[in-house]
Specification:
alpha+beta, single chain, four-stranded mixed sheet, Arc Repressor Mutant, subunit A, Transcriptional regulator, two-stranded antiparallel sheet
Length: 208
């Protein structure tokens, strides 16, 4: 991220470029973009002004589903929002997207360190965005014991802020993972039958 930050002006700019490129149909308010990228609102406004001058983003009306109380009941309604979206006419979209997909800001060796804060991690397989395969069913499969769900979610959100994309991930305890392997579980096969990379294996098992 340090090198990319120097290349594109700041790490915040890199995060926001990723956010729009990897979510081209989404509309983000300043607050939503700041939250997703984990940067300040003032920084987001500054970077948006530059991105607007580049014609990289444009204003767009979007909608969000929100739950509101109506008497004793909760009703789901559409809320109109005024935000920003990727300008599909930006001339370097494909080149920039390809470059940022290849220039993954998180190294394989750093992932186990980050996830280990949430529990005893025994096995990690990555695919999807980590290996430049955007159509993969999962981005990361995590196996371990005593994993604290809320802490794991916090770590995943932090990784997402670096990548600019919501991760498709799953967490199993060791016994469930071994069981799913033995019964040829479809989700497991959808990972291991397609391009992937095992970056941690402390289980002493070989996945075929």
């Amino acid at each position: 991220m340090k090198i990319l930050g120097k290349l594109f002006g700041s790490p915040a700019m890199v995060k926001l470029l990723r956010l729009f490129l990897f979510n081209p149909e989404n509309v983000f308010t300043n607050k939503e973009a700041a939250s997703r990228a984990k940067i300040t609102l003032d920084t987001t406004r500054l970077e948006f002004s530059i991105m607007k001058q580049m014609n990289f983003i444009k204003k767009k009306i979007g909608y969000r589903q929100v739950t509101v109380k109506k008497g004793k009941k909760k009703v789901v309604k559409k809320k109109k929002i005024d935000g920003w979206t990727l300008n599909e006419n930006f001339m370097y979209i494909n080149q920039l997207k390809d470059f940022l997909i290849r220039a993954t800001p998180i190294k394989d060796k750093d992932i186990p360190k980050k996830l280990s804060v949430a529990g005893i991690i025994k096995f990690i397989a990555i695919s999807g965005i980590f290996i430049q395969d955007m159509d993969s069913r999962l981005d990361i499969l995590i196996v371990g014991n005593n994993i604290r769900k809320l802490q794991m979610e916090t770590i995943i959100r932090a990784i997402e802020s670096e990548l600019g994309k919501e991760l498709k991930y799953v967490v199993f305890d060791v016994n469930e993972f071994k069981y799913r392997i033995n019964v040829h579980d479809k989700l497991i096969r959808d990972v291991f039958d397609y391009p992937h990379k095992i970056i941690l294996n402390k289980l002493g098992i070989e996945v075929k």
